[in-house]
Design goal:
Organism: Chitinophaga agrisoli
Largest sheet: 8 strands, mixed
Helix content: 40-55%
Keywords: Cell membrane, Membrane, Transmembrane, Transmembrane helix
Membrane topology: Multi-pass membrane protein
Oligomer: single chain
Number of helices: 24
InterPro entries: ABC3_permease_C, MacB_PCD, Macrolide_Exporter_MacB
Number of domains: 3
Protein name: FtsX-like permease family protein
């Protein structure tokens, strides 16, 4: 029986090649689209899941309230880790870590590498595997370093037999290589290439020991049965007991949430990338459903073609249940073929998709669960796509169809129309959403940030090189490609290096405001394109401005009415005079409207970054070649590694840019799948009405009139879909935009443009078959009459 069903199925597919191709290809595109989404979701869900203790690992975050606004920070006091381990039951281990980019060198090889200073307990908590050395000896001596296999390979050409070798750090300290560990998984939040004892950090940063200094990250592991609510209650006032007046409230943040649920608002988790993961999961299933709808529509539309087959088989004694199974079997067979074709398309396009999402995804066909997923998708698509057609086709009355009566199309026609409306409703929602997402991304990226991010290069400036900056700057200007250069803080774009320990005349003693500080050199304001609104810039001679500061307009407003120039700001025992005010610039919260206050100090020796503005008319590659030559000549001990500031700004919008790209791709695919169904339905409609078209042509109907007649019904369906889709799209996008303080207003033209686009696409899809039918010779279609 199975062989018979299979033979009938293959014969039917071969006999109706065009119909079969449309069904299989449309379903394959849907499976390809859903498959890529599921691969991306799997990649997102797998981040940080390779650690054995992931369910017990937590980062200590702190909620800090300033000026009535609570923010979540991942920095903590250096003494917190040991104190909470000793005093709070349920915490089995703790460690500190301070991330740091350092220059490692051996001989003539020098490379900047990212790593961190940490405690020995870090290795056990994160289950770090040693390939050389062991956890007990790793930090036995202070000046030691543990390398990943990748970093060891870069320096020594091998990841084995490197223990006992010496690496120099920042051209100062020599560190003994005491171990080699396996590379950190690419899908881990915490990335590093080297680890050294926290004692090294303590030696150079004595402020780590103060409870008011939030300078390191703290991690803990809990007992499996630990009560996290109880521990959070004990953490709440932990810092306040040791520092009077502290506003920081520590709390546990699970490793399972680091990647997907890392956004906070008013001190509470409000989501993160998990929102997009869920959204695209829904889109994947909807696109699969759209693809299945094509099968249902075409199968029911072509019911007359199979009516006699059903009648004959019923007369021969085949039960309705067997016919139902046969038609479902045909659907599953087509779904299997679509899965195979979809896999071929995915295999071909996977490198492009990996580039799009910037992740090394793979099909993973060697994984049993992936095979099960594919089988499940094939069965599900076959059952969903074949369920209604099988019930509909198997219900035909054999007497009626064998007497030549046409199968009733009433209910089936309405269902087909409803499914077409559903298809295009979904497609229109995706198109509108894609346009609005793109507008919002462009709105954020093109906003006035308060500085000129274009043509601006950033590179590290070691402390020992800073005193020679004047000569380096002159050499850079002499190249003819550099417009300006200045030293500044690497934290310019981030909420860091801040304090609330500032006072000024007229300040409310109860007012607690977080203010950022930036150390810069003369010329920095011009280099960054920051605009002075009052006062003057720093003098060329930085010593003359050692007690002067420049503030942002937000800081000037805090200091009250009147001219801020000449007013004093106190920080502890130090007093500074305001000599200039610059317009606010956007940093940290790139989505917000309000800029936090900033104080700029004229302290070139404390700046750690060199910023270079190249002339707009100079090609970047030419400018980089000349700048590199200068930096190598003036700073030979350090390799010249640079980045463009606009790339750093774009990194703040990584999630939004990715979502924008994915939504565009999937919206296009949804339209293509829907159009394939329309194309098939239009072809069948033209075939069913071939004699009507012939009579109309004989009676004088024009080709344009017949084309319009055949296209009208489909255009009406798309119009109905638009009326349903627009309110849904507006509601969804309005809700999505609320998460951004700096956002666009949804414009009516988006809906109008989408409506015309969909009508045009529909007309283009249907008109090919309509024109073909209208241009056919009526004599051929009427010859049998």
């Amino acid at each position: 029986m199975f062989k018979n069903f299979l033979r009938i199925t293959l014969r039917h597919l071969w006999k109706n090649k065009s119909y079969s191709f449309l069904n299989i290809f449309g379903l394959a595109i849907g499976i390809t689209c859903a498959g890529f989404i599921f691969l991306w979701i799997e990649g997102e869900m797998s981040v940080d899941q390779s650690y054995p203790q992931k369910d017990q690992l937590y980062r200590i975050m702190t909620n800090q309230t300033y000026d009535g606004k609570t923010r979540a920070f991942n920095s903590t006091p250096g003494k917190l880790a040991q104190a909470i381990k000793e005093e709070i039951p349920g915490i089995t281990a703790s460690c500190r870590m301070s991330g740091h980019k350092a220059l490692f060198s051996q001989g003539d090889k020098s490379i900047f590498e990212w790593g961190g200073y940490t405690d020995t307990s870090f290795f056990r908590m994160f289950d770090i595997q040693f390939t050389e050395g062991n956890v007990n000896d790793a930090f036995r001596q202070v000046n030691s370093v543990v390398l990943t296999e990748e970093m060891a390979q870069r320096f020594f050409g091998t990841a084995s037999n490197v223990r006992g070798k010496i690496l120099k750090v920042d051209n100062k300290t020599s560190l003994l290589v005491t171990g080699v560990i396996k590379d950190v998984p690419k899908n881990a939040t915490l990335q590093f290439s080297w680890l050294s004892p926290f004692e090294i950090f303590m030696q150079t940063h004595d402020w780590w020991q103060y409870w008011g200094s939030y300078s390191v990250s703290t991690y803990v592991t809990l007992q499996p049965s630990a009560d996290t609510a109880r521990i959070n209650r004990q953490l709440y006032g932990f810092i306040e007991k040791r520092q009077e007046g502290a506003t920081a409230r520590p709390f546990l943040f699970s490793m399972n949430d680091w990647h997907l649920r890392g956004e906070f608002e008013d001190g509470k988790q409000v989501g993160g990338r998990i929102v997009y993961v869920r959204m695209f999961g829904v889109i994947a299933w909807i696109i699969l459903l759209i693809a299945c709808i094509n099968f249902m529509n075409l199968a029911t539309a072509r019911s007359e073609k199979r009516a006699r087959e059903v009648g004959v088989r019923k007369v021969m004694g085949v039960a309705r249940e067997m016919l139902t199974l046969q038609f479902i079997g045909e659907a599953i067979t087509m779904a299997v073929l679509a899965v195979v074709l979809g896999l071929l398309i995915m295999w071909t396009l996977l490198p492009l998709f990996n580039t799009l999402v910037e992740s090394p995804l793979s099909l993973g066909l060697n994984q049993p669960r992936h095979i099960l997923y594919l089988v499940g998708i094939a069965l599900l698509c076959g059952l969903v796509a074949g369920s209604y057609p099988s019930l509909y086709l198997s219900s035909f009355n054999p007497v009626a169809v064998l007497k030549g009566f046409k199968a009733k199309q009433g209910s089936a026609a309405w269902i087909r129309k409803g499914l077409v409306v559903f298809q295009f409703t979904t497609s229109i929602v995706l198109i509108v959403s894609t346009i609005i997402i793109y507008q919002q991304i462009q709105h954020m990226r093109q906003r006035d940030l308060g500085y000129d991010q274009s043509h601006l290069i950033q590179t590290d400036m070691p402390p020992e090189v800073a005193p020679h900056f004047a000569g380096i700057k002159q050499d850079l200007l002499n190249t003819g490609v550099v417009e300006e250069a200045g030293l500044g803080s690497g934290a310019m774009l981030y909420i860091s290096n801040n304090s609330s320990n500032y006072s000024w005349q007229g300040k409310d003693e109860n007012q607690d405001i977080l203010i950022s500080r930036r150390e810069v050199s003369p010329g920095f304001m011009a280099t960054w394109g920051l605009h002075l609104s009052a006062g003057r810039d720093f003098y060329t001679n930085s010593v003359a401005d050692s007690n002067n500061v420049i503030i942002t307009e937000a800081m000037a407003k805090l200091m009250g009415n009147g001219n801020p120039i000449g007013k004093t700001i106190r920080n502890g025992d130090d007093t500074y005079y305001v000599t200039g005010v610059v317009k606010d610039y956007v940093y940290g919260d790139m989505y917000g409207k309000r800029s936090d206050p900033v104080i700029f100090y004229c302290r070139p020796a404390d700046a750690d970054q060199l910023f270079i503005r190249i002339k707009p008319q100079v090609r970047p590659e030419v400018a980089m070649e000349k700048i590199t030559a200068v930096m190598k000549a003036d700073n030979p001990a350090y390799p010249f590694v640079s980045s463009f500031v606009d790339e750093q700004v774009n990194a703040f919008y990584t999630s939004e840019i990715l979502i924008g790209k994915l939504s565009r791709v999937f919206a296009v695919l949804a339209i293509i799948i829907s159009c394939l169904g329309l194309f098939g339905l239009a072809a069948y409609t033209a075939e069913r009405r071939v004699k009507e078209i012939g009579i109309r042509k004989v009676l004088g109907a024009s080709a344009a009139g017949i084309t319009g007649l055949l296209s009208k019904d489909f255009l009406q369906l798309v119009g109905v879909a638009a009326l349903i889709a627009f309110p849904l799209a507006w509601w969804g996008m309005h809700s999505w935009l609320q998460q951004y303080a700096y956002r666009i207003n949804i414009s009516g033209w988006v809906f109008v443009a989408t409506a015309f686009l969909c009508l045009f696409i529909t007309l283009l899809t249907v008109s090919f078959q309509a024109i073909k039918a209208a241009m056919a010779n009526p004599i051929k279609s009427l010859r049998t009459e």
